[in-house]
Amino acid sequence: MASHEGLPTIHELVQRWLSLDKNDVTRQEISQLYEQQEWSTLEDRLRNPIQFGTAGLRASMAAGFSRMNNLTVTQASQGLCTYVAENIPEARKRGVVIGYDHRHHSRTFAECTATAFLTKGFQVYLHDRLVHTPLVPFAVRHLHAACGVMITASHNPKADNGYKVYWENACQIIAPHDKGISQAIAANQEPWQEPFTGEELAQHPQCTKITERIVLAYFEAVRSLVSHPNDNRKTNLRFVYTPMHGVGQPFARQALETFGLPMFVPVPAQAEPDPDFPTVKFPNPEEKGALDLAIRTAEEQGLSLVLANDPDADRFALAEKQSNGRWVVFTGDQIGVMLGHYVTTNQRGSRPLAVLNSAVSSRMLAAMAREEGVHYEETLTGFKWLGNQALALSNQGYDAVFAYEEALGYMMTHIVPDKDGITAMVLMAELCCQLHAKGQTVAQHMDSLYDRYGYFFSANSYVICNNAKKIQKAFANIRYGDQGQTSTSEDRYTFTRKDGPTLRYPRQLGEAKVTFIRDLTEGFECGNLVERSSTDVTQDNVPSLPVSSSSEMITFGLDNQCVLTLRTSGTEPKIKYYLEGSGKERSAVQQQVKAIAACIPVDLLNLNL
């Protein structure tokens, strides 16, 4: 057994778990591990509690304070309930919206959540059947609820589940709410009440089933997105659709009916909800091979388009067969630019339009917005930032119609201020039908946008590193120079600060010179760097985007029109990097991007992997 001086012993942690957990299965799980003296497993399960953040909770399902189970979901719900009651006016009367997907234990976790809120006198609006994630924030907005909770792990592996929180504005929570909720969770560890069963919830006077009316309201809102109703009814274009063993199929079907579009051809083996995801290694449409079965179905049916959602249907993917027989799976950035162009082209209204994407997404959306006279803004990574900023722009007089992030997330703000794979799917289906009527493919349409706004080429990837100290050292070396060597003005920019260590960023990546630096961990930003050797940091060097010292994120702009962002993942042992180049000559842009990409793992990160 490992020694933890001054901390509870593993025996004390086991007894604490057994005193709090009321579920026979997970109690037995910990008891058995204790009897078998599985000390390392018990340390892993009990020593460090699962942390609540702006993404809520997400972990594998098992017994223990560090896992998703009835007790940790109950504790999270009690903390959220307490915090919401203290911070949102008339919170109990306005109530909480709760939804769940098809993953193992999702309904049980929803019942645990409902129990906590009902115990403290909240009105509970419960989705009484499987829903796609956007129906929770949609219901929060529609019902003017105080908050919402969706039980889902989205596209994570089958062993995982999650707890996603929406604030009263129907956006995912941001600071300081995450810390406030986390503190409230720590102060409300003892379960208030045994979880109500489904039958008890059905009979509870303050628990209301809402799915039927919310679905009706949602699709009435979706109807407002239709741009070509007459053309939609005439088209003969057909395509394959997969929900990837998730909950999306009935919502995809109703979306197409709402638009008057032809019905899809399903992928039989993936059509129904299955929490074991038997045909895919990872149920994530971003993963290589995830669309293989859908493409095979399209080949068998003689069709050239595949539309896909992830399991909770908040993300969307697209693939198209080309005339040479090759299938192209479009990137999240390409889909985002096509949808952004389509939405702004077809939008009608008196207010100036605005579009947004995140700092790790393509700059092509900004180029498009600039060319078309549409307001553009960039945010930090995540729809919590995109959604909140879209609402802020709306308050400033803009019509913030669209936002996206490169990881296949697309937001039509009028419907819900969060990513929604169903609205993205049906809008892309309508666009495909418009292109088909002109004898044009999606790939040809993307090429026409490149011709108009410039060519943009990305090489996004990641480096896996299970050593947190190595990751920390890699970013320290980028930021401060190699601590074991003397950095010179020839290879490093030097920035002297009154408070904090001197910053020494690289002057060059490969053959390209660094012209712009933004470090959202240190709170530093500086451009026009080529002629500089050193400078003092002033107030003008403060980034416009929010700064967070708890996560790593650095962006470099280069003189060859490439932009590179490196950041750590909040949920995986990865350093992610996002690299994009732009220009008129495609082959030159691709060569420049590939040359920079080759420098990242070895020269820049230097993890010695």
From TrEMBL:
Q: Which UniProt keywords apply?
A: Carbohydrate metabolism, Cytoplasm, Glucose metabolism, Isomerase, Magnesium, Metal-binding, Phosphoprotein
Report whether Lyase shows up as a keyword of the record. no
Can you cite an annotated GO cellular component?
cytoplasm
One family from Pfam that matches here is PGM_PMM_II
For biological process, the GO terms are:
glucose metabolic process; purine ribonucleoside salvage
Report the cofactors: Mg(2+)
Q: What is its main location?
A: cytoplasm
Query: From the UniProt record, which GO molecular function terms apply?
Result: magnesium ion binding; phosphopentomutase activity
Ligase recorded as keyword = no
Cross-referenced InterPro entries: A-D-PHexomutase_a/b/a-I (IPR005844), A-D-PHexomutase_a/b/a-I/II/III (IPR016055), A-D-PHexomutase_a/b/a-II (IPR005845), A-D-PHexomutase_a/b/a-III (IPR005846), A-D-PHexomutase_C_sf (IPR036900), A-D-PHexomutase_CS (IPR016066), Alpha-D-phosphohexomutase_SF (IPR005841)
Q: Where is the Alpha-D-phosphohexomutase alpha/beta/alpha domain?
A: 51-190, 217-321, 331-453
Localization annotation = Cytoplasm
Which PROSITE patterns would you find in this protein's record? Answer: PGM_PMM
Its family?
A: Belongs to the phosphohexose mutase family.
PANTHER family attached here? PHOSPHOGLUCOMUTASE 2B-RELATED (PTHR45745:SF1), PHOSPHOMANNOMUTASE 45A (PTHR45745)
Q: What is this protein called?
A: Phosphoglucomutase
